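Let's practice the habit of predicting before peeking. Look at the sequence and jot down your guess about where helices and strands might fall. Then scroll down.
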Amino acid sequence: MDRLKQKFENELVSKMLTAKRECGYNPTRFNQEMARYGGVDTAKRLIAKARHTGNISDGLSTLYMCRRLDLSMEESVCKDEYAPLFTAEEIQYCKERLNSLGYDFSNI
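Done guessing? Here is the structure:
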């Protein structure tokens, strides 16, 4: 499981670097939370917060405007390989959120 958690976190870091380079988006708070809690726990915390508030995160909004939802944490959560790290409810929430923004799931 630790390897899978590390792979997930590495993917998020790679996505952050790409978002910064291609979209001019530097997710400072997300990066700080990842340093403090790790990738999986940060994702779980952000999903719980979004489910509670019903709001789209600033990061997801920014990536949507940049037409790069593929760089979102939510997209990574939806990947089958990471399913053991998340509950069915967390995965479903991310799928619904991305679907509401018109994300094409055929790429994952």
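How did you do? DSSP finds six helices and no strands in the chain.
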